[in-house]
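does this look right to u?? PRP version
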Amino acid sequence: MSELLTIALTKGRLAFRTLELLEKVGITCEEMKDKHSRKLIFVNEELGVRFFLAKANDVPTYVEYGAADIGICGKDTILEEGRKLYEVIDLGFGRCRMCVCGPESARELLSHHQLIRVATKYPAIAKDYFYNKKHQTVEIIKLNGSIELAPLVGLSEVIVDIVETGSTLRENGLEVLEEICRLSARVIINQVSMKRENERITGLIRDLKRVLQEDMT
Ligand code: PRP
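got this back:
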């Protein structure tokens, strides 16, 4: 019997969408659907597959180190973590945008390349955008959540954050000032696993792509 193929899923909404998709290619794990379960690892011996749930930011780490052969996580996490891995499929769900946001009054500060403070959960993405793309020196302040608070209480002039429906911004009198990039869920693969388990992994990639294609038509 060959080794178990290990798949790391992002806890939360993405995990459920991912499980739905995996089911369509015949990879199932009934136990994992229980939203109240605190279990972290699930094995389907019959299929030779093992799943585990991890925090979004940790999925690329598990994949780079080979603790997971395959991972499913948001493009935001992949960009922020900058890990060595292969990104092979855009799953098309979990769509949102990484944006610079703030009050309308901050628009001018951005266009005049002022030294502003930028609060974010994504310091690497913010740094790359302001330093390498905009060539603007800024002070980046790392936060861990509810980023929209920062400009409201005077911690920063703008934020770099994910915008999905835009309602968090609207309800707090903020707006999108600049779009950095589009985001969605991606499949990532460990570089060694890609060689060692090539047949199984490329088979899975092919099946996933076919199902995604069918869903679109
Ligand atoms: C994310 C993001 C925004 C919000 C955007 O936060 O950081 O705050 O969702 O969604 P919207 O455009 O649909 O309003 P999340 O809920 O993940 O939690 P956090 O604020 O603790 O990061």
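The chain has two domains: 5-94+184-216, 96-182. idk if thats expected tbh
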